[in-house]
Write a structure and sequence with these properties.
Two copies of one chain form a homodimer.
Chain A: H1 3-20, E1 35-36, E2 41-49, H2 55-68, E3 74-82, E4 96-102, H3 105-112, H4 115-124, E5 128-138
Antiparallel strand pairs in A: 2-4, 2-5, 3-4
Helix pairs in contact in A: 2-4
Chain lengths: ~140, ~140
Amino acid sequence: MTKQLKRRRFIETSAKGLAAAGILTASSCTTGNKEEMGSLFLHHVFFWLKEPVTAEVRSKFESALRELITVETIVSYHLGIPASTGRDVIDGSYTYSLFTTFRNKEDQDIYQTHPTHLKFIEDCSTLWERVVVYDTVSI
Amino acid sequence: MTKQLKRRRFIETSAKGLAAAGILTASSCTTGNKEEMGSLFLHHVFFWLKEPVTAEVRSKFESALRELITVETIVSYHLGIPASTGRDVIDGSYTYSLFTTFRNKEDQDIYQTHPTHLKFIEDCSTLWERVVVYDTVSI
């Protein structure tokens, strides 16, 4: 067995092991170069915070986001701000992006009424002036 | 060693193996219950296709999307349509969602001028009436 083939066999065995353990799944991770998130429910939220967006406001909001993403039904998440790109079609006017994925709509429904989510809204809704949500299922 | 401990050791070894092989990375997958996509560059595109959006148009556009996501620098992707959710803050008016992630802005720049991306624009730009892009980096 060549070194390369050995490496590939090890990778395949490792991936199978993780898949068997329910950790590496088709919906959340693959062993290829590219990950297909096909079966996931995407929930992408953009927040426009009220001016002035001070360092204190940012600190409070970011802490609240980090607490929010502890909700159990979230599969993966990304807390973000606009990138430094600027073509005509790009909307970079938002203050924060909250990207989350769920296994399905039911898990996202659980998140919507989860105490942690309700607390986030209660604590932070006075901070934003606009919120836009995109919920997406795979084609 | 208990069966449970053995299982955990196997999972850890498998994960380390994949990480060493450059396949399982902190930015794209973790062995926990929740995946943190922290270091990735998100590029989320929403398309509003011109009416009437016939089955033929959908077929053509979906084929073009599937070709588009073969660009090498894409780390993960999701091709979607609006979910059946309908709260006030949700914008479910778009026709298609194209969610892609990249390791960094440079990899996304490569995608922007990639022949496959340019061909997608050439073939499909007459199909849409509006495109909105959100580029996001982690906080």
